[in-house]
Structure formats: structure tokens, C-alpha cells
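> example.struct
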């Protein structure tokens, strides 16, 4: 039986999906962002939440904890992610990458002390970034409308459906006892946000319109991730601009790790995650 928190997270994701599906009823002139007015309002809410609570706590966390401890926390949760990254690589038919991911889990869970030390990366096993939204994209499912979901931030209809599965499969969000689960969720969210603090200044300086900047960066990054760093030309893309079924072999290209530093997590603030794009540009 799903936990109460998991059910609430799914409800948020489904709400975002419903808004996206109804997007055609309220157009803004931008085919990728037909409900821009609604999205801007939710974006402002998410920005306010981040500024009032999440970012200040993340700054305190970053100040108090030494860098090696923060790195260990990042590695620990990253090791859990690798399990489902491997599952998604299997579903996409990328068998070598999946074995790489599962190998990372075995090595880091044992020699790496439950993932606290990333031995696998030092051994040459690359860290990938896959989720169910990307899997749907690899199967040829189109983006759908762009939608900003409360708390979760930038999504598309396809990625919102993937979010439901991400949450359902997330061992942290579904862990028992609940007290341990809640502490783990808070720690992961704050740690993720602390890792993105250096990107804040870049975004603020680069964006005249932060909403548009974040939207375009999110859509560009997701397109790049789905095509493993080798997206087709616009003229070759599908109806949504990037979601034509892939013609290249599934295991043809693996995106460099530098382009995959911000995997989408179901309980992290997506508005913070998207800012990583600016840091890599």
C-alpha cells in the first residue's frame, strides 16, 4: 500500500498532467506553452517557496556541513537512483548502459559503503541520467504541452506522466518507517538545492525573463537527454519538435556526464533542478 506522502505527490503530478492535457483550451500563441499565464503564476509560487524556505535552508546546510559530508550524501542518494536509471535503460533497450548502472550499484553499495563513496566512477563506470519521462520519449511519445507543476516545477505532459511512475518507484518516498522516510526526503531535497546554489547567480545574470529562460532551458535539456546528447535536426523531429521515434540504435551514444549532473527526482524542487542547465552552458 502506497504511503500517504506518495499519494499526495502523485496527486500533484496528475494535476499537472490534467492541466497540460487541457492546454489547448487556453492558447497563448506559443504551441509549446499554450497555458503560459497559468504556468507563470505557478512559477512565481515556486520561486516564492524557494526564496522563503528552501534556498535559505540550503544555504545554512551548505555553510554548516563540510564538503566531504555533502558529497557523501549526494553519492548515497545517487546510488539509489542508479537502480532505477538501470531499469529505464533496460526499458529503452540500452543493455550495456543498464549493466553499467547495475554494476555501479553493486560496487558502490559494497566497497563504497552503501554508496557514500563513489568508487564506481573512479573505476570508469559512467553515471547516467534516465527516468520514465525519457523512456516514454525514447518510445516516440511526444512532449505534449509545457506545464509548471506546483513544487515540482517545469514539466511536459509526457514528463508529468513519467513523474507518477518515478514517485511510485522511488524507494525513498515509499520507505518505512515514515519518520525515517520524511527525514530522508528533506535531506535529499535540501542537499540537491545546496548543490545548485552556484547556478543561481548564472541564471539571474543571464535571464531578462527568468520564466522564459527556464522554460527554454528545460525543454532543450530534456530533448538532449532523450536523444543521448545527439538530438535530430528540427526538420527531422516529430510533431512536438523533438519527439520523433529514434532511428539510431539505442546504445549508439552515451551523453557525457557533464551534461547529466541534474537527474530529475520526484521529490526535489524541479525549479532548482532546471537551473543546472545554466551552469553547464
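> example.seq
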Amino acid at each position: 500500500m502506497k504511503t500517504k506522502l506518495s499519494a499526495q505527490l502523485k496527486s500533484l503530478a496528475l494535476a499537472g498532467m490534467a492541466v497540460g492535457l487541457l492546454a489547448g483550451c487556453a492558447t497563448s500563441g506559443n504551441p509549446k506553452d499554450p497555458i503560459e499565464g497559468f504556468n507563470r503564476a505557478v512559477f512565481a509560487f515556486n520561486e516564492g517557496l524557494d526564496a522563503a524556505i528552501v534556498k535559505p535552508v540550503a544555504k545554512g546546510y551548505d555553510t554548516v556541513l563540510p564538503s566531504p559530508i555533502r558529497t557523501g550524501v549526494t553519492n548515497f542518494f545517487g546510488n539509489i537512483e542508479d537502480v532505477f536509471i538501470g531499469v529505464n535503460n533496460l526499458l529503452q533497450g540500452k543493455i550495456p548502459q543498464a549493466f553499467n548502472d547495475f554494476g555501479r550499484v553493486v560496487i558502490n553499495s559494497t566497497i563504497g559503503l552503501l554508496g557514500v563513496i563513489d568508487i564506481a566512477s573512479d573505476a570508469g563506470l559512467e553515471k547516467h541520467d534516465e527516468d520514465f519521462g525519457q523512456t516514454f520519449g525514447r518510445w516516440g511519445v511526444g512532449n505534449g504541452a509545457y506545464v509548471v507543476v506546483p513544487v515540482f516545477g517545469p514539466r511536459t505532459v509526457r514528463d508529468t506522466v513519467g513523474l507518477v511512475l518515478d514517485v511510485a518507484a522511488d524507494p525513498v518516498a515509499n520507505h518505512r518507517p515514515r519518520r525515517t522516510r520524511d527525514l530522508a526526503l528533506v535531506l535529499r531535497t535540501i542537499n540537491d538545492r545546496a548543490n545548485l546554489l552556484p547556478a543561481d547567480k548564472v541564471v539571474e545574470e543571464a535571464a531578462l525573463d527568468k520564466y522564459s529562460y527556464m522554460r527554454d532551458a528545460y525543454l532543450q535539456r530534456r530533448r538532449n537527454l532523450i536523444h543521448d546528447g545527439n538530438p535530430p535536426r528540427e526538420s527531422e523531429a516529430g510533431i512536438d519538435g523533438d519527439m520523433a521515434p529514434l532511428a539510431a540504435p539505442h546504445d549508439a551514444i552515451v551523453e557525457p556526464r557533464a551534461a547529466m549532473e541534474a537527474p530529475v527526482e520526484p521529490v526535489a524542487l524541479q525549479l532548482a533542478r532546471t537551473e543546472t542547465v545554466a551552469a553547464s552552458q
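> remarks
Confidence is low (pLDDT under 50) at residues 1-6, 19-25, 243-281.
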